[in-house]
């Protein structure tokens, strides 16, 4: 079978463009979620904040400026077709060069430190990025990118529940994390949840769920129902837009599950702020 060649520079340029577009242009799924939340919001303050978020998104798009000063850590999930070959350099280097190019040329904030303890600044402009590779059939390269803000990431959490905790324990844990986050994760939130796998895998599942467009339910009927149930319960917490009260605390809840060990029930909650910035390109 013939192998398709994808050139290094094409990846660099596509990634650079994605980084800028993610920060300048909020997806229609998020815009529509704001508009739907505005119709349901009972708090006048909450309505005012949602209107400001819509206006902010419009200004960012029209003037090509970041919608938030925190332009995020660049997180990638890359589906690599087993019949494609990257020519001219490695996929990791191409993505990181694209991030550096996109953030520097777009005047986006450089938010990475090389050393987490000494806080020494990264020498690469907003790199290294976080890159997850998934090998898939075919010859295409599909790059999913998210500009993940630090405030919402800081309020995320993971816990190794006991199997006996069951579904009620899972629900209680998710709700407790959102309640503890309060205004600090910049609601209205997109709540990503990973259940199963193991310690590190459930965290990845929670992150991966956030790449789904808002409103796209799980393909598993019982999980889709759980997403909707948790959405209702979270919006009953009263946190509201920017933590100022109201019933638009979450724009969506997304859950990914995987098999796990008989003695384990890992659950991760990865919160995303109202600026749910995600882009996708197929090469």
Write out the strand line-up for the largest beta sheet, numbering strands in chain order. Answer: 4-2-5-10
State the shape. globular
Distance between the termini: 19 Å
What is the arithmetic mean of pLDDT? 96
Stretches with pLDDT under 50, minimum 5 residues: none
Structural class: alpha/beta
**What portion of residues belong to β-strands?**
15-25%
Q: What is the chain-wise order of helices and strands?
A: EHHHEEHEEHEHEHHEEE
Number of strands: 10
What's the Cα radius of gyration?
Answer: 19 Å
Q: Provide a count of the helices.
A: 8
Helix percentage:
25-40%
Largest sheet: 4 strands, mixed
Give a verbal description of the structure.
- With 283 residues, this protein is an alpha/beta fold.
- It has 8 helices and 10 strands.
- The protein has helices spanning 8-24, 28-40, 44-63, 91-105, 150-154, 166-181, 199-209, 221-235, and strands spanning 4-7, 73-81, 84-87, 130-136, 141-148, 157-161, 189-197, 250-260, 265-272, 278-282.
- A 4-stranded mixed β-sheet has the order 4-2-5-10. It has a 4-stranded mixed β-sheet with strand order 6-9-7-8. It has a two-stranded parallel sheet with strand order 1-3.
- The model has no long low-confidence stretch (mean pLDDT 96).
SSE blueprint:
Blueprint: E1 4-7, H1 8-24, H2 28-40, H3 44-63, E2 73-81, E3 84-87, H4 91-105, E4 130-136, E5 141-148, H5 150-154, E6 157-161, H6 166-181, E7 189-197, H7 199-209, H8 221-235, E8 250-260, E9 265-272, E10 278-282
Parallel strand pairs: 1-3, 2-4, 7-8
Antiparallel strand pairs: 2-5, 5-10, 6-9, 7-9
Helix pairs in contact: 1-4, 2-3
């Amino acid at each position: 079978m013939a192998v398709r060649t994808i050139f290094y520079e094409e990846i660099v340029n596509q990634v650079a463009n994605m980084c800028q577009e993610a920060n300048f242009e909020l997806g229609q799924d998020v815009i529509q979620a704001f508009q739907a939340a505005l119709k349901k919001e009972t708090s006048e303050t909450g309505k005012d904040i949602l209107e400001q978020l819509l206006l902010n998104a419009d200004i960012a798009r029209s003037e090509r400026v970041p919608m938030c000063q925190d332009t995020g850590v660049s997180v990638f999930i890359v589906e690599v077709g087993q019949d494609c070959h990257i020519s001219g350099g490695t996929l990791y280097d191409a993505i990181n060069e694209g991030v550096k190019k996109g953030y520097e040329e777009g005047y986006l904030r450089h938010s990475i430190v090389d050393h987490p303890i000494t806080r020494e600044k990264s020498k690469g402009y907003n790199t290294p990025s976080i890159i997850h590779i998934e090998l898939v059939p075919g010859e295409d390269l599909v790059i999913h990118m998210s500009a993940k803000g630090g405030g919402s990431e800081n309020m995320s959490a993971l816990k190794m529940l006991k199997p006996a905790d069951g579904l009620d324990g899972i629900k209680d844990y998710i709700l407790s994390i959102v309640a503890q986050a309060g205004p600090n994760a910049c609601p209205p939130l997109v709540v990503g949840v990973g259940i199963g796998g193991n310690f590190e895998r459930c965290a990845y599942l929670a992150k991966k769920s956030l790449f789904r467009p808002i409103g796209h339910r799980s393909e598993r009927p019982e999980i889709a129902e759980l997403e909707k149930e948790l959405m209702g319960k979270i919006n009953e917490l009263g946190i509201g837009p920017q933590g100022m009260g109201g019933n638009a605390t979450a724009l969506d809840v997304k859950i990914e599950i995987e098999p796990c060990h008989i003695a384990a029930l890992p659950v991760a909650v990865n919160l995303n702020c109202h600026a749910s910035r995600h882009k996708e390109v197929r090469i």
